Structures are given as C-alpha cells and as structure tokens.
Amino acid sequence: MTLYEQANILNVGQLTRRKFLSRLGLLTASASFVSSFDASASQKLFFKISLGEWTFNKSLKKGLMKNLDFPAKAKRDFDIDTVEYVNTLFDNQSTEPGYLKELKNRCDDNGVKSLLILCDDEGDLGDLDVQQRQKAVKNHFKWVDAAHFLGCESIRVNCGGKGTMKEVAAAGIEGLRNLSEYAKMANLNVLVENHGGYSSDAQWLVGVIKSVGMPNCGTLPDFDNFDILPTSWYDRYKGVEELMPFAKGVSSKAINFDANGNCVETDFERMLKIVKASGYRGYLGIEYEGDQLSEDEGVRMTRRLLERANAALR
Description:
The protein has twelve helices and ten strands. It has helices at residues 3-10, 14-24, 39-43, 57-61, 70-78, 97-110, 130-150, 165-185, 202-212, 236-243, 268-277, 295-312, and strands at 48-52, 82-86, 113-118, 154-157, 189-193, 217-220, 227-229, 232-233, 250-254, 283-288. Helix 8 (165-185) packs across helix 9, helix 9 runs parallel beside helix 10 and helix 11 (268-277) packs across helix 12 (295-312). The longest helix has 21 residues, at 130-150. The termini are far apart.
C-alpha cells in the first residue's frame, strides 16, 4: 500500500486526538498568543512567511530538538504557521508511515501547514552515469511520497554532477524530468535551488529548467548560495532576478547582522524589490545560518528585517 493510499487511513481519529489534546492544554494557544511581531505589518506583506528547519540544524544534530518538535515550535515561539523541512533532519531520516502520521498530527494539532521538504544526500540528479542518475531519481521518490502525505506543495532538490557544464546540464535535464514526472502524479513541484557548483550559475540553471519544460519543475532562489567555486561568486541580485520567473519558493537567508539590524551579506530591500517586481506572491522562507545570535533570535531578526524591508518598498 502506497503512502497515498494510507493517507485516509492514517487521518482517522484526528479530530478526536485534537479534542483530547485540547483538554490537556497541549495545543498552541494561538488565540491568546502575544506575538513579538507587529501583526498589522504582517498583514500588509506582499508575500507570505514560512520557517526553514535548517535554521535549527545545530540543535537538531545535538539532540536538543527533534524534527517532530518543529511544527509546534514554529507556531508557539514565532507565530509562523507554515514550515519547510530538511530530509536529513528527520529523526533517523524516517519516512515510515507511523512517523509521518505523528508529524502530520502535530502539524494539524497546531494549525501548521507543511510547505516543502528540502532533499539532500540522495545522489546527483545530474550524474553522467545513467545507472547512478536513475538511482538518485528513485532515491527521491520516498520524499515525494512523504511530502504528498504531509500536504506539501514541493520538494527541493539539487542538480549536481561531475563533468562539463554542458554534460551535467544534459544529465540534469533528464534526471529532473524523470523525477518531475513522478512528482506530477502526486501534484507536487520539484524545485532546484542555487546550491553551489553549476546550480549557482543562474543562467545555467535557467537553461536546465527551460529544457525540462514541465510546469511542476521550477526554482527556489536563495538570497545566498551563489558560490560557483570557493573563489567565484555569481552576482546574487542578478541571479535571483534571473531565477524568479521560475520560482515556486524563495529562501530569504540571513547570516550576519550589523548594528542596525541589516543583513551584512544581502541588501534585503533590494532583494524584495526584485522578488516583488517578478510578480511573485508566495512564501519567503526564513532561514538564519549565522553564529552570532541564537537560532531563535536569528529567526526574529530575519523576520523584523523582512517586515522593515517590505515597508520600505511602499
């Protein structure tokens, strides 16, 4: 039985569980939640906000937090009701039905939406070896199934490989097309992020996406990650502008902040102008990857910066 077929079975009793937890006082009290953010400002954003799990990778890897805790933490601590998972941070990288059921229940209990799963370490979709490429495609199937069960819209993948730009592009087009065909059956998008190597060359990535030629295969522009080589960077503003026409998600990554609360690496106001001009009105995922602040404070600082940059556009 596939995860698609199990979905209805696993959802049975969800309402009862919710009522039970409510009586125990274990649900997030969103009605009485006192947000540290300006709710009126949030209502005027031209985009929606989601929270990227990678922000908490240190706590998760140290065992201070579990993937199952993420939905409730997003809602309770930040009043964010949409989350983006990372497959390598799933407890034991599990896609077992029972585990996914528990994760979905925790989302439902707290009124949290699962948006996407970022998938790493499953092989190169642009591997020049046909067998290795096919293996990488099949390795992603379980994450498509998991994303479908959780109610996600997309999975994020990498398009890498060893060879010339032309060779990896040709292999990547085939790998992405095969994976997108599978994801299409689950009504899911397959998104490629600028994530190092050739994929951080926006023109190269745009060419790959165009050649795949499927509506459910797009991009997930990241404000950072434009390092083609350790000493060679693609212009981040040019890159995001080129990737936005194919974007079905955006990662608003922040690393370091100055004394005025601005991101040192990226001019957020300039980036938001590019995103808005593209006509994109979807989610901007908060992802803090710095060491100067705690993970929680990094989220709050990034959100404040997004809201302030958004207000400056008017």
